[in-house]
Q: What sequence folds into this?
Protein backbone atom coordinates (compact mmCIF):
# COMPACT_ATOMS: atom_id res chain seq x y z
CA UNK A 1 0.00 0.00 0.00
CA UNK A 2 2.74 2.42 1.05
CA UNK A 3 4.85 1.31 -1.95
CA UNK A 4 1.97 1.87 -4.36
CA UNK A 5 1.41 5.27 -2.92
CA UNK A 6 5.12 6.06 -3.32
CA UNK A 7 5.09 4.91 -6.98
CA UNK A 8 1.96 6.97 -7.64
CA UNK A 9 3.47 10.05 -5.99
CA UNK A 10 6.73 9.67 -7.92
CA UNK A 11 4.85 9.31 -11.22
CA UNK A 12 2.88 12.45 -10.46
CA UNK A 13 6.07 14.33 -9.61
CA UNK A 14 7.78 13.24 -12.84
CA UNK A 15 4.71 14.22 -14.81
CA UNK A 16 4.54 17.63 -13.12
CA UNK A 17 8.27 18.17 -13.69
CA UNK A 18 7.94 17.30 -17.38
CA UNK A 19 4.92 19.53 -17.74
CA UNK A 20 6.67 22.50 -16.21
CA UNK A 21 9.80 21.97 -18.26
CA UNK A 22 7.81 22.50 -21.47
CA UNK A 23 5.27 25.01 -20.23
CA UNK A 24 6.44 28.26 -18.76
CA UNK A 25 5.10 28.36 -15.24
CA UNK A 26 7.00 31.26 -13.75
CA UNK A 27 9.78 33.56 -14.77
CA UNK A 28 11.98 31.43 -12.57
CA UNK A 29 10.68 28.44 -14.52
CA UNK A 30 12.40 29.55 -17.70
CA UNK A 31 15.41 31.08 -16.05
CA UNK A 32 17.48 27.99 -16.62
CA UNK A 33 21.06 28.71 -15.76
CA UNK A 34 23.46 28.21 -18.66
CA UNK A 35 24.87 25.12 -16.94
CA UNK A 36 21.46 23.56 -16.58
CA UNK A 37 20.81 24.15 -20.20
CA UNK A 38 24.03 22.53 -21.36
CA UNK A 39 23.48 19.61 -19.03
CA UNK A 40 19.90 18.88 -19.84
CA UNK A 41 19.94 20.26 -23.37
CA UNK A 42 16.29 21.08 -22.76
CA UNK A 43 16.16 24.19 -24.88
CA UNK A 44 16.73 24.11 -28.61
CA UNK A 45 16.31 27.10 -30.93
CA UNK A 46 12.86 25.84 -31.86
CA UNK A 47 11.76 25.39 -28.27
CA UNK A 48 8.62 27.31 -27.46
CA UNK A 49 7.18 28.05 -24.04
CA UNK A 50 3.45 28.57 -24.06
CA UNK A 51 2.49 31.53 -21.93
CA UNK A 52 -0.48 31.25 -19.56
CA UNK A 53 -3.70 32.98 -20.64
CA UNK A 54 -3.49 36.74 -20.34
CA UNK A 55 -5.39 38.37 -17.51
CA UNK A 56 -8.63 40.16 -18.53
CA UNK A 57 -7.94 43.87 -18.05
CA UNK A 58 -11.12 45.44 -16.75
CA UNK A 59 -9.77 48.97 -16.42
CA UNK A 60 -11.87 51.34 -18.54
CA UNK A 61 -9.91 52.42 -21.61
CA UNK A 62 -10.04 56.17 -20.86
CA UNK A 63 -8.71 55.48 -17.38
CA UNK A 64 -5.71 53.61 -18.87
CA UNK A 65 -4.94 56.60 -21.03
CA UNK A 66 -5.36 59.03 -18.10
CA UNK A 67 -2.90 56.93 -16.04
CA UNK A 68 -0.23 56.56 -18.72
CA UNK A 69 3.16 57.71 -17.47
CA UNK A 70 6.77 56.56 -17.60
CA UNK A 71 8.31 54.66 -14.68
CA UNK A 72 12.07 54.15 -14.54
CA UNK A 73 12.94 52.51 -11.22
CA UNK A 74 11.84 49.00 -10.37
CA UNK A 75 11.99 46.75 -7.32
CA UNK A 76 13.74 43.38 -7.48
CA UNK A 77 10.37 41.58 -7.43
CA UNK A 78 9.98 39.29 -10.43
CA UNK A 79 7.31 39.77 -13.06
CA UNK A 80 5.07 36.69 -12.95
CA UNK A 81 4.29 34.66 -16.05
CA UNK A 82 0.68 35.82 -15.94
CA UNK A 83 1.78 39.46 -15.78
CA UNK A 84 4.22 38.97 -18.65
CA UNK A 85 1.55 37.13 -20.62
CA UNK A 86 -0.95 39.96 -20.04
CA UNK A 87 1.48 42.68 -21.15
CA UNK A 88 2.68 40.75 -24.22
CA UNK A 89 -0.83 39.90 -25.38
CA UNK A 90 -1.91 43.54 -25.05
CA UNK A 91 1.31 44.66 -26.76
CA UNK A 92 1.12 42.59 -29.89
CA UNK A 93 -1.04 39.56 -29.30
CA UNK A 94 -3.29 37.89 -31.80
CA UNK A 95 -7.00 38.20 -31.09
CA UNK A 96 -9.70 35.57 -31.53
CA UNK A 97 -10.40 36.92 -35.04
CA UNK A 98 -6.73 36.49 -36.00
CA UNK A 99 -5.99 40.22 -36.06
CA UNK A 100 -3.31 41.81 -33.92
CA UNK A 101 -3.91 44.21 -31.03
CA UNK A 102 -2.42 46.99 -33.18
CA UNK A 103 -3.44 48.02 -36.69
CA UNK A 104 -1.50 47.20 -39.84
CA UNK A 105 0.30 50.16 -41.35
CA UNK A 106 0.48 50.10 -45.16
CA UNK A 107 -1.06 46.63 -45.16
CA UNK A 108 1.51 44.84 -43.05
CA UNK A 109 2.80 44.14 -39.57
CA UNK A 110 6.52 44.41 -38.98
CA UNK A 111 7.10 44.41 -35.21
CA UNK A 112 9.20 41.77 -33.47
CA UNK A 113 9.39 41.73 -29.65
CA UNK A 114 12.41 40.27 -27.87
CA UNK A 115 11.85 39.30 -24.25
CA UNK A 116 15.06 39.54 -22.26
CA UNK A 117 15.09 37.37 -19.15
CA UNK A 118 18.05 35.29 -18.00
CA UNK A 119 18.08 34.18 -21.63
CA UNK A 120 16.66 35.86 -24.71
CA UNK A 121 13.27 34.89 -26.15
CA UNK A 122 11.15 36.11 -29.03
CA UNK A 123 7.43 36.61 -28.53
CA UNK A 124 5.35 34.52 -30.92
CA UNK A 125 1.86 36.10 -31.18
CA UNK A 126 0.47 33.16 -33.17
CA UNK A 127 0.33 30.79 -30.23
CA UNK A 128 1.15 33.30 -27.48
CA UNK A 129 4.48 31.74 -26.64
CA UNK A 130 8.09 32.63 -25.97
CA UNK A 131 10.52 31.12 -28.43
CA UNK A 132 14.05 30.58 -27.14
CA UNK A 133 16.38 32.81 -29.17
CA UNK A 134 19.73 33.01 -27.48
CA UNK A 135 21.51 31.99 -24.33
CA UNK A 136 22.72 34.78 -22.09
CA UNK A 137 21.51 37.55 -19.83
CA UNK A 138 21.44 40.87 -21.71
CA UNK A 139 19.22 42.77 -19.28
CA UNK A 140 22.03 44.89 -17.86
CA UNK A 141 24.40 45.32 -20.79
CA UNK A 142 25.78 48.72 -21.83
CA UNK A 143 23.04 50.82 -23.35
CA UNK A 144 20.27 49.49 -21.09
CA UNK A 145 19.26 52.59 -19.20
CA UNK A 146 17.22 51.05 -16.41
CA UNK A 147 17.57 47.88 -14.37
CA UNK A 148 14.44 45.72 -14.56
CA UNK A 149 13.46 42.04 -14.24
CA UNK A 150 12.25 42.07 -17.87
CA UNK A 151 13.52 44.12 -20.79
CA UNK A 152 11.33 44.16 -23.90
CA UNK A 153 13.24 44.86 -27.11
CA UNK A 154 11.04 46.43 -29.78
CA UNK A 155 12.32 45.73 -33.29
CA UNK A 156 10.91 45.74 -36.77
CA UNK A 157 11.36 43.47 -39.76
CA UNK A 158 13.05 45.46 -42.53
CA UNK A 159 11.45 43.23 -45.23
CA UNK A 160 8.05 44.44 -44.07
CA UNK A 161 8.59 48.13 -43.30
CA UNK A 162 11.06 50.99 -43.50
CA UNK A 163 12.46 52.59 -40.34
CA UNK A 164 9.66 55.17 -40.12
CA UNK A 165 6.73 52.79 -40.50
CA UNK A 166 8.43 50.12 -38.37
CA UNK A 167 8.92 52.68 -35.64
CA UNK A 168 5.32 53.89 -35.97
CA UNK A 169 4.03 50.37 -35.37
CA UNK A 170 6.39 50.13 -32.37
CA UNK A 171 4.65 53.31 -31.14
CA UNK A 172 1.30 51.50 -31.16
CA UNK A 173 2.79 48.45 -29.44
CA UNK A 174 4.51 50.71 -26.89
CA UNK A 175 1.19 52.35 -25.98
CA UNK A 176 -0.36 48.96 -25.30
CA UNK A 177 2.61 48.05 -23.10
CA UNK A 178 2.19 51.30 -21.12
CA UNK A 179 -1.57 50.73 -20.73
CA UNK A 180 -1.40 47.05 -19.79
CA UNK A 181 1.58 47.46 -17.44
CA UNK A 182 -0.05 50.34 -15.62
CA UNK A 183 -3.37 48.51 -15.25
CA UNK A 184 -1.69 45.65 -13.34
CA UNK A 185 0.54 47.96 -11.28
CA UNK A 186 3.69 47.34 -13.30
CA UNK A 187 5.67 50.18 -14.84
CA UNK A 188 7.56 50.84 -18.04
CA UNK A 189 9.18 53.53 -20.20
CA UNK A 190 10.12 53.54 -23.86
CA UNK A 191 13.85 54.17 -24.25
CA UNK A 192 15.49 54.71 -27.59
CA UNK A 193 18.98 55.99 -28.06
CA UNK A 194 21.03 56.57 -31.17
CA UNK A 195 23.02 55.37 -32.97
CA UNK A 196 22.54 51.80 -31.67
CA UNK A 197 19.51 50.85 -29.59
CA UNK A 198 20.54 48.52 -26.77
CA UNK A 199 18.78 45.51 -28.28
CA UNK A 200 21.24 45.18 -31.17
CA UNK A 201 24.10 43.59 -29.16
CA UNK A 202 21.76 40.63 -28.69
CA UNK A 203 22.56 39.84 -32.32
CA UNK A 204 19.49 40.40 -34.46
CA UNK A 205 18.89 38.61 -37.75
CA UNK A 206 20.03 40.69 -40.78
CA UNK A 207 16.44 41.65 -41.66
CA UNK A 208 15.58 43.11 -38.24
CA UNK A 209 16.46 46.41 -36.64
CA UNK A 210 16.10 47.62 -33.08
CA UNK A 211 13.85 50.53 -32.25
CA UNK A 212 13.91 50.69 -28.46
CA UNK A 213 13.86 48.99 -25.11
CA UNK A 214 11.02 48.96 -22.61
CA UNK A 215 12.01 47.82 -19.12
CA UNK A 216 9.15 46.15 -17.28
CA UNK A 217 8.87 45.68 -13.54
CA UNK A 218 7.23 46.67 -10.29
CA UNK A 219 7.74 50.42 -9.81
CA UNK A 220 9.62 51.52 -6.70
CA UNK A 221 6.99 54.21 -6.16
CA UNK A 222 3.24 53.62 -6.23
CA UNK A 223 1.04 55.24 -8.84
CA UNK A 224 -0.74 58.14 -7.20
CA UNK A 225 -3.20 60.20 -9.22
CA UNK A 226 -5.66 62.94 -8.34
CA UNK A 227 -8.50 63.61 -10.75
CA UNK A 228 -8.43 67.28 -11.71
CA UNK A 229 -10.13 67.80 -15.09
CA UNK A 230 -9.13 70.55 -17.48
CA UNK A 231 -12.04 72.86 -16.64
CA UNK A 232 -10.89 75.59 -18.97
CA UNK A 233 -11.21 73.44 -22.07
CA UNK A 234 -13.53 74.89 -24.69
CA UNK A 235 -14.11 71.33 -25.93
CA UNK A 236 -16.67 68.91 -24.44
CA UNK A 237 -15.37 67.16 -21.29
CA UNK A 238 -13.70 63.76 -21.61
CA UNK A 239 -16.02 61.09 -20.22
CA UNK A 240 -15.21 57.48 -19.39
CA UNK A 241 -16.85 54.96 -21.70
CA UNK A 242 -18.00 51.57 -20.43
CA UNK A 243 -15.39 49.69 -22.44
CA UNK A 244 -12.52 47.97 -20.63
CA UNK A 245 -9.03 47.79 -22.10
CA UNK A 246 -9.18 44.13 -23.15
CA UNK A 247 -12.45 44.62 -25.05
CA UNK A 248 -11.14 47.81 -26.66
CA UNK A 249 -8.06 45.92 -27.90
CA UNK A 250 -10.26 43.01 -29.07
CA UNK A 251 -12.76 45.17 -30.95
CA UNK A 252 -10.64 47.75 -32.75
CA UNK A 253 -11.19 47.51 -36.47
CA UNK A 254 -9.97 49.38 -39.52
CA UNK A 255 -12.50 50.49 -42.12
CA UNK A 256 -12.47 52.41 -45.41
CA UNK A 257 -16.06 53.68 -45.47
CA UNK A 258 -18.27 55.44 -42.96
CA UNK A 259 -21.97 56.17 -42.35
CA UNK A 260 -22.91 59.82 -42.71
CA UNK A 261 -20.71 62.79 -43.22
CA UNK A 262 -20.35 64.45 -39.86
CA UNK A 263 -18.91 63.86 -36.41
CA UNK A 264 -20.37 65.07 -33.11
CA UNK A 265 -18.43 67.62 -31.06
CA UNK A 266 -18.24 65.10 -28.23
CA UNK A 267 -16.65 62.45 -30.46
CA UNK A 268 -14.29 65.00 -31.97
CA UNK A 269 -13.23 66.18 -28.53
CA UNK A 270 -12.46 62.63 -27.32
CA UNK A 271 -10.63 61.57 -30.47
CA UNK A 272 -8.42 64.62 -30.68
CA UNK A 273 -7.71 64.52 -26.95
CA UNK A 274 -6.65 60.85 -27.18
CA UNK A 275 -4.20 61.76 -29.94
CA UNK A 276 -2.07 64.18 -27.91
CA UNK A 277 -3.99 65.83 -25.07
CA UNK A 278 -3.15 66.14 -21.39
CA UNK A 279 -4.52 63.71 -18.83
CA UNK A 280 -7.18 64.93 -16.42
CA UNK A 281 -5.18 63.14 -13.73
CA UNK A 282 -2.48 64.91 -11.81
CA UNK A 283 0.42 62.57 -11.08
CA UNK A 284 1.58 62.88 -7.49
CA UNK A 285 3.64 59.69 -7.52
CA UNK A 286 6.96 61.44 -7.12
CA UNK A 287 6.51 63.01 -3.69
CA UNK A 288 7.03 66.71 -4.41
CA UNK A 289 6.69 66.80 -8.20
CA UNK A 290 3.17 67.30 -9.49
CA UNK A 291 2.68 66.56 -13.14
CA UNK A 292 0.00 66.26 -15.78
CA UNK A 293 1.06 63.71 -18.42
CA UNK A 294 0.16 63.58 -22.09
CA UNK A 295 -1.72 60.61 -23.52
CA UNK A 296 1.55 59.34 -25.00
CA UNK A 297 5.29 59.63 -24.33
CA UNK A 298 7.64 61.93 -26.25
CA UNK A 299 11.40 61.69 -26.78
CA UNK A 300 13.12 64.15 -24.41
CA UNK A 301 9.63 65.27 -23.42
CA UNK A 302 9.73 67.64 -26.44
CA UNK A 303 6.11 67.02 -27.54
CA UNK A 304 6.82 68.64 -30.90
CA UNK A 305 3.64 67.68 -32.76
CA UNK A 306 0.82 69.83 -34.00
CA UNK A 307 -2.49 68.04 -34.36
CA UNK A 308 -5.01 69.08 -37.03
CA UNK A 309 -8.67 68.11 -37.38
CA UNK A 310 -10.29 68.18 -40.82
CA UNK A 311 -14.09 67.94 -41.15
CA UNK A 312 -16.54 69.00 -43.86
CA UNK A 313 -16.63 72.41 -42.16
CA UNK A 314 -12.91 73.07 -42.46
CA UNK A 315 -9.47 72.61 -40.93
CA UNK A 316 -8.71 73.32 -37.25
CA UNK A 317 -5.60 73.04 -35.13
CA UNK A 318 -5.89 71.38 -31.71
CA UNK A 319 -4.41 73.61 -29.04
CA UNK A 320 -3.85 71.05 -26.32
CA UNK A 321 -2.25 73.27 -23.70
CA UNK A 322 -2.03 76.99 -24.21
CA UNK A 323 -0.29 77.71 -20.91
CA UNK A 324 2.29 75.25 -19.65
CA UNK A 325 1.30 75.59 -16.02
CA UNK A 326 0.98 71.90 -15.41
CA UNK A 327 3.86 72.00 -12.93
CA UNK A 328 1.31 73.08 -10.33
CA UNK A 329 -1.31 70.73 -11.68
CA UNK A 330 -3.47 73.66 -12.71
CA UNK A 331 -5.96 73.48 -15.58
CA UNK A 332 -4.68 74.04 -19.08
CA UNK A 333 -6.73 75.73 -21.79
CA UNK A 334 -7.47 73.50 -24.78
CA UNK A 335 -9.53 74.34 -27.85
CA UNK A 336 -9.72 74.09 -31.64
CA UNK A 337 -8.30 76.98 -33.64
CA UNK A 338 -9.86 77.38 -37.11
CA UNK A 339 -7.22 77.44 -39.87
CA UNK A 340 -9.41 77.30 -42.96
CA UNK A 341 -13.09 76.95 -43.87
CA UNK A 342 -14.68 74.67 -46.47
CA UNK A 343 -14.49 70.97 -47.17
CA UNK A 344 -10.81 70.12 -47.73
CA UNK A 345 -11.19 66.35 -47.37
CA UNK A 346 -11.11 65.68 -51.16
CA UNK A 347 -7.77 67.50 -51.34
CA UNK A 348 -6.48 65.49 -48.34
CA UNK A 349 -7.62 62.32 -50.14
CA UNK A 350 -5.74 63.34 -53.28
CA UNK A 351 -2.53 63.51 -51.26
CA UNK A 352 -3.18 60.14 -49.55
CA UNK A 353 -5.98 57.61 -50.19
CA UNK A 354 -9.26 58.22 -52.04
CA UNK A 355 -11.46 56.74 -49.26
CA UNK A 356 -10.31 59.46 -46.87
CA UNK A 357 -12.63 61.95 -48.61
CA UNK A 358 -15.66 60.14 -47.08
CA UNK A 359 -14.41 60.18 -43.50
CA UNK A 360 -16.39 62.49 -41.19
CA UNK A 361 -13.14 63.42 -39.45
CA UNK A 362 -9.47 63.23 -40.41
CA UNK A 363 -6.83 63.82 -37.76
CA UNK A 364 -3.32 64.72 -38.94
CA UNK A 365 -0.27 64.63 -36.62
CA UNK A 366 2.35 67.02 -37.99
CA UNK A 367 5.92 67.22 -36.69
CA UNK A 368 7.11 70.76 -35.99
CA UNK A 369 10.78 70.12 -36.83
CA UNK A 370 12.09 73.20 -35.00
CA UNK A 371 10.66 71.83 -31.77
CA UNK A 372 12.93 68.78 -32.00
CA UNK A 373 16.13 70.81 -31.59
CA UNK A 374 16.26 72.39 -28.11
CA UNK A 375 19.07 70.93 -25.89
CA UNK A 376 19.66 67.86 -28.06
CA UNK A 377 19.17 68.18 -31.82
CA UNK A 378 16.91 65.36 -33.04
CA UNK A 379 15.78 67.17 -36.19
CA UNK A 380 17.86 65.35 -38.77
CA UNK A 381 15.97 63.42 -41.44
CA UNK A 382 17.93 60.27 -40.49
CA UNK A 383 16.34 60.45 -37.00
CA UNK A 384 12.80 60.92 -38.25
CA UNK A 385 11.95 57.36 -37.11
CA UNK A 386 12.09 58.62 -33.50
CA UNK A 387 9.19 60.93 -34.25
CA UNK A 388 7.31 58.31 -36.23
CA UNK A 389 7.13 56.35 -32.96
CA UNK A 390 5.12 59.22 -31.52
CA UNK A 391 2.91 59.61 -34.61
CA UNK A 392 2.18 55.85 -34.50
CA UNK A 393 1.31 56.11 -30.80
CA UNK A 394 -1.05 59.05 -31.48
CA UNK A 395 -2.74 57.19 -34.36
CA UNK A 396 -3.18 54.07 -32.20
CA UNK A 397 -4.71 56.10 -29.37
CA UNK A 398 -7.22 57.55 -31.84
CA UNK A 399 -8.19 54.08 -33.09
CA UNK A 400 -8.69 52.80 -29.54
CA UNK A 401 -10.65 55.89 -28.51
CA UNK A 402 -12.78 55.45 -31.64
CA UNK A 403 -13.46 51.82 -30.63
CA UNK A 404 -14.60 52.70 -27.13
CA UNK A 405 -17.04 55.23 -28.65
CA UNK A 406 -18.45 52.82 -31.24
CA UNK A 407 -16.50 54.40 -34.12
CA UNK A 408 -13.78 53.07 -36.45
CA UNK A 409 -10.83 54.54 -38.27
CA UNK A 410 -7.70 53.75 -40.18
CA UNK A 411 -4.03 54.76 -40.42
CA UNK A 412 -3.19 56.18 -43.82
CA UNK A 413 0.27 57.14 -45.11
CA UNK A 414 0.77 60.37 -47.05
CA UNK A 415 1.99 60.34 -50.66
CA UNK A 416 2.26 64.09 -51.13
CA UNK A 417 3.43 65.80 -47.94
CA UNK A 418 3.93 69.12 -49.67
CA UNK A 419 0.25 69.21 -50.69
CA UNK A 420 -0.82 68.47 -47.09
CA UNK A 421 1.44 71.27 -45.78
CA UNK A 422 -0.06 73.70 -48.29
CA UNK A 423 -3.58 72.76 -47.12
CA UNK A 424 -2.59 73.24 -43.48
CA UNK A 425 -0.83 76.54 -44.34
CA UNK A 426 2.53 75.20 -43.20
CA UNK A 427 6.05 75.52 -44.63
CA UNK A 428 6.96 72.02 -45.78
CA UNK A 429 10.63 72.66 -44.95
CA UNK A 430 9.70 73.11 -41.30
CA UNK A 431 6.82 70.67 -40.84
CA UNK A 432 6.43 66.97 -41.53
CA UNK A 433 2.86 65.60 -41.66
CA UNK A 434 3.10 61.88 -40.83
CA UNK A 435 -0.28 60.15 -41.15
CA UNK A 436 -3.92 60.82 -41.91
CA UNK A 437 -6.24 59.11 -39.43
CA UNK A 438 -9.77 59.05 -40.87
CA UNK A 439 -12.50 58.26 -38.30
CA UNK A 440 -16.28 58.04 -38.15
CA UNK A 441 -19.26 55.77 -37.50
C1 LIG B 1 10.84 57.70 -28.98
C2 LIG B 1 11.03 57.95 -27.50
C3 LIG B 1 12.26 57.75 -26.93
C4 LIG B 1 12.45 57.93 -25.56
N1 LIG B 1 13.68 57.68 -25.04
C5 LIG B 1 13.86 57.75 -23.69
C6 LIG B 1 15.10 57.40 -23.12
O1 LIG B 1 16.05 57.05 -23.84
N2 LIG B 1 15.22 57.44 -21.77
C7 LIG B 1 14.18 57.82 -20.96
O2 LIG B 1 14.35 57.84 -19.73
N3 LIG B 1 12.99 58.20 -21.47
C8 LIG B 1 12.79 58.14 -22.83
N4 LIG B 1 11.57 58.47 -23.37
C9 LIG B 1 10.43 58.82 -22.47
C10 LIG B 1 10.25 60.32 -22.34
O3 LIG B 1 11.31 60.91 -21.67
C11 LIG B 1 8.92 60.60 -21.61
O4 LIG B 1 7.87 60.10 -22.35
C12 LIG B 1 8.66 62.08 -21.37
O5 LIG B 1 9.63 62.61 -20.52
C13 LIG B 1 7.30 62.34 -20.78
O6 LIG B 1 7.11 61.67 -19.56
P1 LIG B 1 5.90 60.66 -19.34
O7 LIG B 1 6.02 59.57 -20.38
O8 LIG B 1 6.08 60.17 -17.94
O9 LIG B 1 4.62 61.42 -19.49
C14 LIG B 1 11.37 58.35 -24.75
C15 LIG B 1 10.13 58.58 -25.33
C16 LIG B 1 9.95 58.37 -26.68
C17 LIG B 1 8.59 58.57 -27.30
A:
Amino acid sequence: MRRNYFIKETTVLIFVALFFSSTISSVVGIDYSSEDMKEKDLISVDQEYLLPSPQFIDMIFEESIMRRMSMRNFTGDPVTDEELSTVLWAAYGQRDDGKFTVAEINGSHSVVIYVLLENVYKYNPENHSLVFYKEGDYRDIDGMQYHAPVQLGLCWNTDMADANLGSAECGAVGQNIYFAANSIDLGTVITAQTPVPAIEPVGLPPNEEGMGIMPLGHPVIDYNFVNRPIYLSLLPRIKFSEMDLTTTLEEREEVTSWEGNSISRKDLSHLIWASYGYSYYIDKSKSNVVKRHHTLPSAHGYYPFRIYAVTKAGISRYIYGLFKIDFFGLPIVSFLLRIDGGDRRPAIAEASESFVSNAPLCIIPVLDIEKTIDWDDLSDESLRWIWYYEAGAAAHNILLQATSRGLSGNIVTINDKEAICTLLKLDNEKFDPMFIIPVGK
About this structure: The two ends are 70 Å apart (CA to CA).
